[in-house]
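Good morning,

Both structures are done.
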Amino acid sequence: MSSNKIIISPKTRVGELLDTYPGLEPVLMEMSPAFEKLKNPVLRKTIARVATLQQVAVVGGLNVDEMVNRLRKEVGQSAAETESQDLEYLSVDSPDWFDEAMIVIRFDASPIINSGGSPMNEILYKTNMLKPGEIFELQTPFFPAPIIDMLKGKGYRVHCVKNENNVYSFVCK
């Protein structure tokens, strides 16, 4: 294995994976139709640079350990021990901080995503405008796992609900 190769794990960023192993792109797309969006150059430059395999497994509705081991097998790496952690994105019960009346910004990112753009900068801008206790509602056509993790890392509280058509993420400052 050359020195520029990476060991594939749940923490591997999708952009780094595809830069190192470009032949894995069709393998990912075969695993889930949700990964077809990786063909979009804007999403490839933005989301793929920050999204980990753990996060995109959630987006694609896949078991991360099975996905990682399939990718490892494709490039000749041995199967990994289970090292992923269950990320809780959806919850049935509303958290105590959630109050529908406190939603001050509603944003449907679907048109931007469906037209090939990335809504990340707009989402970050809008959530940054929140005052304590205010809630931002995000609607997307798939699990926004990378942005959820990014916002959680910035100290925001997040609650996600999925209906039959879309995913709703409620973010509170």
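Second structure follows.
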Amino acid sequence: MIEIHNLSKTYAGGVQALTGIDLKIESGMFGLVGPNGAGKTSLMRILAGLLRASSGSVSVFGKDMGTAAGKQAAKALLGYLPQELGFYPTLSAREFLDYMAILKGVTDKRTRQAQIEQLLEEVRLTDVADRRLKTFSGGMKRRVGIAQALLGNPKLLIVDEPTVGLDPEERVRFRNLLSGMAKRCTVILSTHIVEDISHSCNDLAVMSKGRVIFRGAPAELVQQARGNVFTVLLRDEPPDGGLSVVSTLQMTDGVQYRVLGKPDGRYEAKPIEPSLEDGYIWLMQHAAQPTS
């Protein structure tokens, strides 16, 4: 279990990245979603032992991340794929993984080679393992990144914005890969793309402006928007009256708008079932509203 209590982070200049974060994360895949700048990466870096919190506490499988000994012990249990992983472009995938395995303390050559071959197979890069990394596509580099994060058989895998810049096919492949990993270790997936967590996470938190504004199951987030999602078919101007357009679909007799809100009598609105994205947008809109 990962336990986070009253965690805050303030950067130089007074920039408040995190404020009073309280979370308990158990096994399986946990989704951390929120817009860019919400504080997700700061939280991931603190969990990975790369950033010191300003206040509060973090425990990773009973290891106190506030102490040098606890941080060192926790790092031996986790794998981390940052948003931007530095590669050595002239190394092959196999050479890079061998180098990273040594840094992670997998010193026995036979054990290291067996682990690397297994991971190359899991991320489906065996056939190109001897190609230089500079020839890899973005999706292939992400898969090398996952392989390096899994070296040493971690109990916790932290993945920060893994699908940014990937084409739709690679995004689906990557999400499926992470879902498979969640069967053998805890996976924390941080993203601003709601679709990345819609089919894989059984537990999630939504962050905004350094705070957790929702914690629960995906179905509970969907419930936030129930009764407030409609389709409206219009020929001329887009809908107004305080409605938020989620998506549009060009039809033969006009444009079908998927909207959030309560359409007034001007529109022939049809209520529809909300999606996870609807629930997320509804939550973010109401979180942004000032309280009286």
